[in-house]
Amino acid sequence: MKRIALLLAATAGVCSVPVYAQTPAAAAAPAPTLTPRSDGIDVHVGTTTTRITAMTDGLVRVRVDKNGLFPEDASWAVPAAIRRQKIAVTAAPDGFTTASVRVRVGAGGAITFETLDGKIISADAAPVATDGKAFAIAKTLPIAEHFYGLGDKTQGLDRRGHGFVDWNTDAFGFSSADDPIYKSIPFFIGTGGAGGSYGILLDNTYRTWFDFGHRDAETLSFGGPDGPIDYYFIAGPSMAEVTRRYADLTGHAPLAPKWALGYQQSRYSYGSADEVRQIAARLRSDRVPTDVIWLDIGYQDRNRPFTTDAKTFPDLPKLATEMKADGIKLVAITDLHIAAVEQGYAPYQSGMKADAFIKNADGSPYVAPVWPGPSVFPDFTKTTARTWWGTQYKGFLDAGIAGFWNDMNEPAIFETPTKTMPLDTRHRIDSDDFTTRITDHREAHNVYGMLNTRATYDGLLKLRPDERPFVMTRASYAGGQRYAVTWTGDNSATWDHLKLSVQQIINLGLSGFGYSAADVSGFAGGPSADLLTRWTEIGAFTPVFRNHSATGTPRVEPWVDGPDHLAIRRRFIEERYRLMPYFYALADQNARFGDPIMRPVFYDYPAAATASCDQSIAFTLGKSLLIAPPPKPESPQTYDVCLPAGGWYDYWTGQRVGTPEPAAAGPIQSATQAVPTARTLGDRVTETPRLDRLPVFVRAGTILPRQPLVQSTSETPNGPLRLDIYPGADCMGTLYEDDGRTLAYTRRGYFRQMVRCTITPTGLSIDFAKPEGGFKPWWKSIAITVHGWDGAGTARVKGKQANVVQDSAVGTSTLVVPPMNIAGAVHLEGRQMAIGQTPKTISLR
Question: Pick the catalytic residue: 114, 490, 537, 557?
Answer without folding.
Answer: 490
